[in-house]
Amino acid sequence: MPKKVNLNRVPIPKQEPAARKKNFSEVALGYGEEEAIEEASRCLQCPKPTCKDGCPVNVDIPEFIEAVRDRNMVEAVRILKGKNSLPGICGRVCPQETQCEERCALAKKGAPVAIGRLERYVADWERAHPELAAKQEVDYVAGGRKVAVVGSGPAGLTCAADLVKMGHEVTIFEALHVAGGVLMYGIPEFRLPKQIVQGEVDYVKSLGVEIKLDHVIGKIATADELLESGYDAVFLAPGAGAPMFLSIPGENLNNVYSANEFLTRTNLMKAYLFPRWDTPVKRGRRVAVFGGGNVAMDASRCALRLGAEEVYVIYRRSKVEMPARLEERENAEEEGVIFRLLTNPKSFMGDEQGRVRAVECYEMELGEPDDSGRRRPIRKPGTEHSIEIDTAIVALGTRPNPIIPSTTEGLELTRWGTIRADEATGRTSRDRIWCGGDMATGAATVISAMGAGKRAAADIDAYLREKR
Amino acid sequence: MYRVLAREDLTPEIHLFRVEAPGVARKAQAGQFVIVRSDEKGERIPLTIADWDEKEGSVTVVFMEVGATTRKLSCVNAGEAILDFVGPLGRPTEIEKFGTVACVAGGFAIATIVPIARAMREAGNRVVSIMGFRTRDLVFWEDRLGSVSDELIVSTDDGSYKRKGLVTEPLKELLQNTRIDRVIAIGPTVMMKFCSLTTKPFHVKTIVSLNPIMVDGTGMCGCCRVSVGEETKFACVDGPDFDGHEVDWDLLMSRQRAYLEEEKEASAFWEAACSGAKNHA
Ligand SMILES: Cc1cc2nc3c(=O)[nH]c(=O)nc-3n(C[C@H](O)[C@H](O)[C@H](O)COP(=O)(O)OP(=O)(O)OC[C@H]3O[C@@H](n4cnc5c(N)ncnc54)[C@H](O)[C@@H]3O)c2cc1C
Ligand code: FES
């Protein structure tokens, strides 16, 4: 019987903007079982599915969706986790609209199957039914080798999980006091609950991966010392964690934060629970966030939830050039974030106690496209104006932290300071050292970091088998 | 978890912990620091490494109770554990044969200057140390610093013990009377500032160890930014040692006060929780 095409994407229930901007609970509430099955039934089960090509870790998308449709959740979990160790995370934060869903046969009709929401549903179902979900089988092969993974973000976790499944002994070294990388310190609770991340980290540990927290590689031991101390290979996945600033006067005034600091205080150190948790963060009333990416959206929405009356996102180009996901921009707008587009800061002004009190800005207009293909913003003369603020958050992006490159001899870098690594294998210029994730590509996405972790795991395994 | 092997109360408010951390002990060098978090809800704070013992696998830190976090930390007894102890972080102090080195320390920083003075002497320098305290009752480690120095000057602000006055006075005399090739000044920010102002006219390079507020301590957040020679630096990775003549002291002091209000709120909140636990041996 030919299938009738259903173009009604099942919407995902969300907290109302007026309520959610006052709490840190998750915004999107997720499908219930009937909603998931209805959405899964829209999948055409294409004989030659293209959605899979859009997934950096090649999840067997039609197969797991078919299992959901048939109400066989145990099977859906098994299929999904066969390729993706962190589905609860990916289902929430992957930009599906430019990946799997963009390639869905129904995308041309404007209603791709909501693959991300289904992925999230399956992962959440497993969390709710730990006793029913099938245990992943790990093929422990005799004679596995020892691998050190540096960093426990998505790249490190994925690489470690895959290697342990291939029979190797894996230790992750993590600088912070919790595992998860940006998933823990950057992405806010209301978009990615920390319990979900913790659950997926625990899953990776349950496979047999050891995680050593509080270990800054380059300080407590260098990559070379790891190799000397008995590890056969090292996978570097320390992310691109060093914040960039605007380099304008007044930037070191109090209450001017990098997005990393603001988000780390808020999410990792739970400053929104201060003073029950010890770390404070300024609860600004008038907050300006500089930048137009996802990080700027996260920072502005956190500021609202901390009680700000007015939050501005100040961005030097126009809306169409904004790198933030459409969904995140809409969420921010619904919650009342004010966009000051085509505006650029010139300097910060402080009060007598050294706190920021205003930012002087000028207007911009768009000229010819630049190297990035986006139209270059040009300063409009005579448009200086100042905006009164009590907190500023700079979300201009990050660059690689030099701690590892500067302590590992012979590691070739690119001109952006990232570690040069082969895209297909993660191999670096150094024997027995691989690299992947944001440290190799510059700030990118969770799933691309996971893809790099997967490819490196395969290559490390092949290398170690050959050496045996 | 990192066990506190021994605890010593150097003064009622200055405490020494010898902490079991073999990995850190193996790599520690004079001038570096660790990030400490006492418990699950605790703040991450930097503490300078005061000593280490590779054989025992221990690292010693000394801290003064100033706010809620250090007060909470002071409730930890020997045998108990600290949740996180990360290091060794920052760049080590530059140790070389300079000639004569003056090591100046105030208050709790006496403990952290000892390994520096020791290393300076081992590198072949003549070491003159100056230690300053508020009053007689707070004097500690006179013998220890003395044992790694060729000459030791002790002063108290109120004159209740040895020389009366601030450490800057004997420092100035020293500079007037002898050839000093390098000064290391560690202690409260104002003290480091005035030591730097004192040495400036003599053109003697003066190294200070800055202690801005930090979060991660690895260059990830920028909370620790300081201005040195008109350039923004991250104290946790570019420092903590800097040239005292180049530091923007007013900016540093202003940034150290960024959370004064919150500090009061937190102290009030924890006062009750800690008061019962403070009857340690
Ligand atoms: C606020 C924010 C929101 C984002 N939102 C999204 C989103 O919605 N969707 C999306 O796909 N992507 C998003 N991203 C990007 C995504 O999070 C990153 O691309 C991804 O996390 C990179 O993974 P990674 O494993 O390379 O590094 P990271 O996640 O950065 O993890 C690196 C880990 O290594 C540790 N480390 C660093 N140095 C050392 C060292 N010397 N020794 C030991 N450990 C070390 C770090 O502490 C960290 O835990 C966001 C990023 C931010 C900052
Ligand atoms: S403390 Fe975060 S960068 Fe220095």
Strand order of the largest sheet of chain A: 3-2-1-4-16
How many distinct folded domains of chain A? 3
The computed structural class of chain B is alpha/beta
CATH class of the largest domain in chain B: Alpha Beta
How would you describe this structure to a colleague?
The complex is a heterodimer of chains A (468) and B (281). Chain A has helices at 17-20, 33-41, 61-69, 73-83, 87-93, 100-103, 115-128, 154-165, 182-185, 194-206, 223-228, 259-268, 294-305, 326-335, 403-407, 438-441, 446-467; strands at residues 146-150, 169-173, 210-212, 233-236, 242-243, 256-258, 286-290, 310-314, 338-340, 343-350, 356-369, 375-379, 385-388, 391-394, 398-399, 433-435. Chain A has 468 residues and is an alpha/beta fold. Chain A folds into 3 domains: 17-128, Orthogonal Bundle (Fumarate Reductase Iron-sulfur Protein, Chain B, domain 2); 146-240 and 400-467, 3-Layer(bba) Sandwich (FAD/NAD(P)-binding domain), CATH 3.50.50; 243-398, FAD/NAD(P)-binding domain. In chain A, strands 3-2-1-4-16 form a 5-stranded parallel β-sheet. In chain A, strands 6-14-7-8-9 form a 5-stranded parallel β-sheet. Chain A is globular and about 65 Å long. In chain B, the strands form 3 sheets. Chain B has a 7-stranded antiparallel β-sheet with strand order 6-1-2-5-4-3-7. Chain B is an alpha/beta fold and 281 residues long. Chain B has 2 domains: 2-89, Translation factors (Elongation Factor Tu (Ef-tu), domain 3, Beta Barrel); 100-256, Rossmann fold, CATH 3.40.50.80. The model of chain B has no long low-confidence stretch (mean pLDDT 92). Chain B is globular. In chain B, β14 (225-228) and β15 (231-234) form a beta hairpin. The interface between A and B is large, with 40 and 43 residues. The site of flavin-adenine dinucleotide has 42 residues of chain A, from α8, α13, α15, α16 and α17.
How would you concisely characterize the structure shown here?
Chain A is an alpha/beta fold and 468 residues long. Chain A contains 17 helices and 16 strands.
